[in-house]
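pls design
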């Protein structure tokens, strides 16, 4: 009986957390007509410490036209990763996608996503070499040079191979 009650409390608590009205409200504000409100919603979701934040940020990216808002979303995801909030592994995956010129058109957004992944690699949260190796072929010279610089700073045997 105790196990059953404990299970129900855990499930109910998880459901209540997943439906946090404040987080849902921020998710709605990510789709506001006002760019400043969308940027602030992204910042707030990055500080909220909820796994649901990553899902909402990820869902907002494909339809977001403003590079400034996409940049704030990348910064929010970076914050989630570095504070190791719930959902940070998924935030790493989103950053990997956003660092690609196939997924993100804006050079600065790709650069900031790449830098976040490089920093995550320094904290042993992932291996940044595959992302940096991919970015050696980026259409932006700035990104290619940044990838070379980041690989050089890592200074591991894998980076030597990547740099050829």
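designed seq:
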């Amino acid at each position: 009986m105790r196990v059953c009650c404990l299970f129900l409390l855990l499930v109910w608590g998880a459901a209540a957390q997943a439906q946090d009205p404040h987080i849902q409200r921020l998710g709605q504000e990510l789709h506001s007509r006002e760019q400043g409100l969308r940027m602030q919603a992204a910042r707030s979701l990055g500080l909220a410490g909820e796994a649901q934040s990553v899902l909402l940020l990820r869902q907002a990216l494909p339809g977001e036209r403003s590079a400034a808002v996409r940049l704030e979303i990348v910064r929010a995801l970076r914050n989630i990763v570095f504070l190791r909030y719930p959902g940070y592994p998924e935030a790493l995956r989103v950053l990997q996608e956003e660092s690609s010129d196939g997924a993100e058109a804006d050079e600065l957004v790709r650069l900031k996503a790449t830098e976040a992944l490089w920093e995550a690699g320094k904290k042993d949260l992932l291996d940044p070499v595959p992302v940096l190796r991919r970015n050696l072929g980026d259409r932006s010279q700035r990104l290619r040079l940044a990838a070379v610089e980041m690989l050089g700073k890592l200074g591991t045997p894998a980076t030597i191979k990547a740099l050829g």
